Amino acid sequence: MNSLEHRIVLITGATGGLGTAMCKKMHDDGYKVVANYRNEEKALEWQKKLKEEGYDIAMYQADVADFDSVGRMVAKITEDIGPVSILVNNAGITRDGAFRKMTWENWRAVMSSNLDSVFNCTRHVINPMIDSGFGRIINISSVNGQRGQFGQANYSAAKAGMHGFTKTLAMEVANKGVTVNTISPGYIGTDMVMAVREEIRNQIIAQIPMGRLGGTEEVAYLVSFLASEHANFITGANMSINGGQHVY
Q1: Domains along the chain?
Q2: pLDDT digits over 222-231, tens only?
Q3: What is the tens place of the pLDDT at every residue in 146-204?
Q4: Residue 27 and residue 138: Cα distance in Å, rounded?
Q5: How far is CA 2 from CA 11, 99, 134, 135, in A?
Q6: pTM above 0.85?
Q7: Is the CB of residue 138 less than 8 Å from the CB of residue 86?
Q8: Which residues are the active-site residues?
Q9: Contact at 8 Å (CB) between 10 and 208?
Q10: Cα–Cα distance, 129 to 16 (Å, whole number)
């Protein structure tokens, strides 16, 4: 498998808006796409819909917050299809609330799903990547991990932690053919954002210099680029894609 277009890419949290766009883009670019999911009923509906659109996406269940669950998933993928060469750590949740009212359960749930998951998934694929001399780790963070956001102490901490992880691991594996990078999207037009009340959504858009929400396909294109051979010299980077909302 010398061609990057035949590498296996594992995308966690694949059934959401961003994950779906990533799966489609990577599939269109010729990669073998493996989608991780947690909720089977939702995943089967998602898979059926994509098949109707011409996308044949392999699906594997795991709770990415659980180290052993991820280990079983990666072992099964390796057995059925082959070793994962590209990992996109996209899974995540929110449990928003002012810190003075934040419960330990909401703190722990977000840290587990958004940050522990990055360790769990990366740890299970990194050594085979090193052994093969090629790998891509792409961590999906957030503009709110860069600038902070009221009511998101848990989410912002987890997303900022993702890039701290990226920088250190990038240095450790830079001479092994493995790159590690972060993407920090701003407000993207996912179903979740579009479900926000229109007046609130308009207030958000008013804070974005470009005057619009980002497209899921725009983030997916950046993922595909970082996975490609054209990005061999990019590692340890945090790629902002936020319409100018946070410039630093």
Answers
A1: 4-234 (3.40.50.720)
A2: 999 999 999 9
A3: 887 878 899 999 999 999 999 999 999 999 999 999 999 999 998 778 877 899 889 98
A4: 17
A5: 21, 49, 10, 12
A6: yes
A7: yes
A8: 155
A9: no
A10: 27
